[in-house]
Amino acid sequence: MEMIEAKNLVYEYIRRDEEGNVEGIIRAVDGVTMEVKRGDFVAILGHNGSGKSTIAKQINAILEPTEGTLFVNGIDVAEEENIWDVRQTAGMVFQNPDNQIIASVVEEDVAFGPENLGVPTEEIWERVAESLQAVGMTEYRYHSPNKLSGGQKQRVAIAGIMAMKPKCIVLDEPTAMLDPNGRKEVIKTLHELNEKEQVTVLLITHYMDEVIHADKVIVMDDGKVVMQGTPREVFSKVAELKKHRLDVPQVTELAYELQQAGVPLPNGILTVEEFTEALLAVKGKY
Ligand code: ADP
Ligand code: MG
Fold first, then answer.
1. Which of 47, 130, 211, 214 has an alpha carbon within 20 to 30 A of 204's alpha carbon?
2. Which residue's alpha carbon is nearest to atom 13 within ligand 1?
């Protein structure tokens, strides 16, 4: 059993006029079959409007499948009585940290989730301490969230989800409103949680450089899965990515352009280190 399993999943937004007549149908998710294995770090990439957020909402049982099936840790999201189980299994983090932080002290904010789940008080404070530690925010425990940077706020939001002990975290463009440092902090935190706490991570983003260390990348366009594989497999296909209106990481692009110009570099270079090494190897041949 995988952590997330979608088969021929469809979601249609139906627009109605005042009398309730159907005016239009938008097929936002159009026959998606995909899986996220337990313990994996999987990224979904896609241009605006490709259906990423709609899938995230389906995984969180906010939107029901129009067709097809979706299981989260073996739980069918389409069954009304499973909603709370699903939401406890897959915690969600959204784009705007300001909409997710509610308390006036960091530790209270992190405690909010487990309090709502009815976790005994003593255990709540243990979980708060562990979660803040896991996201590297312990020293801000008694601070006001207002004064934190965007990246720090997102880490507090992630700690709040971790305190509910989900098996999986789904993040819908969690870095879209952050500066480059904030983005790096959040991505690093996610990898640490994935490695140390064995939390399955599903990261939705349109930043290519955030996904180079993922176990798997799924590319969506127009409601469909159009590419998937390891980052190296996916980023080897620069022309295809561009067709889906995605930019590859800068260093991958540079290597690709050089390759097109006749420099014998390997496909799918992802980091500056790899690039330097490959270029030195080429230089050695001349
Ligand atoms: P992404 O997150 O990849 O940008 P979305 O899942 O938000 O994509 O949107 C997919 C498609 O569904 C888009 O065409 C979008 O306009 C449409 N859509 C999203 N939300 C709604 C909504 N509440 N009502 C109608 N159409 C919507
Ligand atoms: Mg979106």
1. 130
2. 49
CA-wise closest residue to 143 among 134, 135, 151, 152: 152
Residue whose CA lies nearest to ligand 1 atom number 7? 53
Q: Does the pLDDT at position 284 exceed 90? A: no
Angle, helix 150-162 to helix 106-116, in steps of 10 degrees? 30
The predicted structure's pLDDT at residue 100: 86
Per-residue pLDDT tens digits for 45-104: 999 999 999 999 999 999 999 999 999 999 999 999 999 999 999 999 999 988 888 899
* Residue to mutate, 16, 54, 204, ligand 1, most ligand atoms under 8 Å from C-beta: 54
Question: In sequence order, which residues have a C-beta less than 8 Å from that of residue 121 and are 6 or more positions away?
Answer: none
Secondary structure class of 126 (helix, strand, coil): helix
Cα 262 to averaged position of ligand 1 atoms, centre (Å): 41
Q: Report the C-alpha gap between 139 and 155 in whole angstroms.
A: 13
Q: Whose CA is nearest to atom 23 of ligand 1?
A: 13
Whether the predicted pLDDT of 28 surpasses 80: yes
Ligand 1, pocket residues at CB < 6 Å: 13, 26, 28, 46, 48-54
Q: Which of 252, 247, 250 is nearest to 232 (CA)?
A: 252
The Cα–Cα gap between 233 and 110 comes to 38
Q: How far is the C-alpha of 217 from the C-alpha of 202, rounded, in Å?
A: 10
Please tell me the distance from the alpha carbon of residue 70 to that of residue 12, in angstroms, as a whole number.
Answer: 15
How far away, in angstroms, is 53 Cα from ligand 1 center?
7
In the structure, how many helices (H) and strands (E) does the chain have?
10, 10
Please report which ligand is nearest the Cα atom of 44.
1
By alpha-carbon position, which residue is closest to atom 15 of ligand 1?
49
What is the spatial distance between Cα 68 and Cα 88, in angstroms, rounded to a whole number? 22
